[in-house]
């Protein structure tokens, strides 16, 4: 799966990265897997970093599917924040149209991860300490980070 994630801060922060070809189905599968993760905290914050996606096939057809996934798990997404870091125009179109406040979630598209982290209330430098252990393009979707202490 071209989206992998780690849960940080006791499941209250999701750090996800997209690699290679990213399709609508990949994004939907990621969201479904994430919402079924027993370690995911309530009112979680998610950073989906798409800067490594070389073929970003996300388009506006994802809007309805995302709404179905999030609408089916209102108790899980209520109060959460979803930041997507991307450089493609289609993501900004999606962000302009996808308003999931009806489910209690806020999604914003950013072109810079440090700005997204400010909005999410996390220090971007903290993410630099998260080492992705053996992260090939088609690894299992959830990785456990090896955290290196900051000296």
Protein model, in words:
- The chain has 151 residues and is of the alpha/beta class.
- It has one domain: 2-Layer Sandwich (Transcription Regulator spoIIAA), CATH 3.30.750.
- 32% of the residues lie in helices and 28% in strands.
- It has six helices and seven strands; from the N terminus they run E-E-H-E-H-H-E-H-E-H-H-E-E.
- The protein has a five-stranded mixed sheet, sandwiched between helices.
- Helix 1 packs parallel to helix 2.
- The chain is globular, with a radius of gyration of 14 Å.
- The termini are far apart.
- 33% of the residues are buried.
Blueprint (SSEs and pairs):
Layout: E1 3-8, E2 13-22, H1 24-36, E3 45-56, H2 62-71, H3 74-77, E4 81-85, H4 89-97, E5 106-110, H5 113-120, H6 124-128, E6 130-131, E7 146-147
Parallel strand pairs: 2-3, 3-4, 4-5
Antiparallel strand pairs: 1-2, 6-7
Task: Give a nutshell description of this structure.
The protein has one domain: STAS domain (Transcription Regulator spoIIAA, 2-Layer Sandwich).
Keywords:
151 residues; alpha/beta; Transcription Regulator spoIIAA; 5-stranded mixed beta sheet; two-stranded antiparallel ribbon; 6 helices; 7 strands; 28% strand; disordered C terminus
Oligomer: single chain
CATH class: Alpha Beta
Structural class given helices, strands, pairing?
A: alpha/beta
Low-confidence spans: 133-140, 144-151
Helix content: 25-40%
Radius of gyration: 14 Å
- In round numbers, the mean pLDDT is 80
Number of helices: 6
Structure summary, number of beta strands: 7
Question: Sheet bearing the most strands, described?
Answer: 5 strands, mixed
The strand line-up of the biggest sheet is 1-2-3-4-5
- Helices and strands, in order, run as EEHEHHEHEHHEE
Into how many domains do the coordinates divide?
1
Shape: globular
CATH fold-level topology: Transcription Regulator spoIIAA
CATH H-level homologous superfamily name: STAS domain
The fraction of residues in strands falls at 25-35%
- Assign the CATH architecture: 2-Layer Sandwich
First-to-last CA distance: 34 Å
